[in-house]
């Protein structure tokens, strides 16, 4: 088995303490097993962020912690549970609600990584005497010219650097990603090899604190959402929606709009009037943009390094392939991006994340929150 070396490691494996952030899933379980096999002093630590029961009356965190205990006992390593429920509600969940109420579609995983996993959780691990915190993220921490870089995972379908772009190089000095260089198929094989109780466990999907339940019902428990109208760009009413917060740019499914012709897509929202704007056709010009602006900039290196204009690659959503673009300017806390090819469904308050090649590695430079888009192809044609 190939192994990922911990950058900056100064002591022998046996003298190095690694706390593994264990979620109860197969990825973090394999992290613990691999590190134990490599001779590190491994401790499992479960992070409780949510305490509410799901629709079936099951507390998901209790189920996950039971899996953590099972794996740790199998590996004969100590384990602990830490409670960050208050920190999560104050710094992640409340922001999630505020963004939805404002009409945006937030991504709580990015905020959770910044505010919880690699802030209070990392600090807790270091307070307990750990040399490093290891997690099951599919990404890599590689030392290039003496500096830690956040690098894409080798499994392109699982890479998670999009959710980690707010990581700073100072944090990377204390963080290890043991499986970031492996494909998911290999991780599953390792789980079988170590005979872990999580070896056949399905990957978690969706938003962690919602679990397997109806999203609309969940959200309606926390924010007031009013039904409204679907309108076309010309102002024609074509139906009623159940609340503008439930819809995002480019969405097709769940609109409940039929009739002859091409499918309907969300092309915009007027939150003041509680109107969702729709048009027919997935290639409608109102969905395409050549440029955008973004603020809340976060560089892994701590500051922008390079000269403008900077040609690089970027993605404006997790599953998107990298897009060629140019960062043309950065001023007043906002950057401007021009794309080589038009981008479909630019959603405000989603993250744009930047990449470049450094010595053969796909390095994540950082990212920002999309604050505004240029004129759509529809507007340009008016």
Automatic annotation (TrEMBL):
Site (Interaction with tRNA): 137, 350
UniProt record, GO biological process: tRNA wobble position uridine thiolation
Main location, first listed in the record: cytoplasm
Compartment(s): Cytoplasm
Signal peptide (residue range): none
UniProt-recorded name of the protein: tRNA-specific 2-thiouridylase MnmA
Taxonomic path: Bacteria, Pseudomonadati, Bdellovibrionota, Bacteriovoracia, Bacteriovoracales
Nucleotide-binding recorded as keyword: yes
Superkingdom of the organism of origin: Bacteria
Family: Belongs to the MnmA/TRMU family.
Positions annotated as active site in the UniProt record: 112, 208
Organism: Halobacteriovorax marinus (strain ATCC BAA-682 / DSM 15412 / SJ) (Bacteriovorax marinus)
């Amino acid at each position: 088995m190939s192994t990922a070396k911990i950058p900056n490691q100064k002591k022998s494996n046996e003298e190095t303490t690694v706390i593994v952030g264990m979620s109860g899933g197969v990825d973090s379980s394999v992290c613990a097993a691999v590190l134990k096999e490599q001779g590190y002093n491994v401790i499992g630590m479960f992070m409780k962020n949510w305490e509410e029961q799901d629709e079936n009356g099951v507390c998901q965190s209790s189920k996950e912690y039971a899996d953590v205990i099972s794996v740790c006992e199998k590996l004969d390593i100590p384990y602990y549970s830490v409670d960050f429920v208050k920190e999560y509600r104050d710094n992640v969940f409340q922001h999630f609600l505020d963004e939805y109420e404002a009409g945006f579609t937030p991504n709580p995983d990015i905020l959770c990584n910044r505010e919880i996993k690699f802030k209070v959780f990392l600090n807790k691990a270091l307070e307990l005497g750990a040399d490093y915190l290891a997690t099951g993220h599919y990404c890599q921490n590689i030392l290039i010219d003496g500096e830690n870089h956040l690098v894409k995972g080798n499994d392109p379908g699982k890479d998670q650097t999009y959710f980690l772009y707010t990581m700073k190089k100072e944090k990377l000095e204390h963080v290890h990603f043991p499986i970031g260089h492996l494909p998911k198929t290999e991780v599953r094989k390792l789980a079988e090899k170590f005979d872990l109780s999580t070896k056949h466990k399905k990957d978690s999907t969706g938003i962690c604190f919602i679990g397997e339940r109806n999203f609309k019902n969940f959200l309606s428990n926390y924010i007031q959402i009013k039904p409204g109208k679907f309108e076309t760009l010309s102002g024609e009413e074509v139906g009623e929606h159940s609340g503008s917060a439930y819809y995002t740019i480019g969405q097709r499914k769940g609109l409940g709009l039929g009739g002859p012709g091409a499918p309907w897509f969300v092309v915009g929202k007027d939150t003041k009037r509680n109107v969702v704007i729709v048009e027919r056709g997935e290639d409608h010009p109102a969905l395409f943009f050549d440029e955008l602006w973004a603020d809340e900039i976060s560089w892994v290196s701590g500051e922008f390094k390079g000269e403008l204009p900077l040609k690089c690659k970027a993605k404006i959503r997790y599953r998107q392939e990298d897009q060629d673009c140019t960062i043309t300017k950065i001023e007043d806390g906002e950057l401007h991006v021009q794309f080589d090819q038009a981008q479909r469904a630019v959603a405000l308050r989603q993250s744009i994340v930047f990449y470049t090649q450094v010595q053969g590695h796909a390095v994540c430079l950082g990212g920002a929150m999309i604050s505004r888009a240029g004129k759509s192809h529809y507007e340009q044609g008016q």
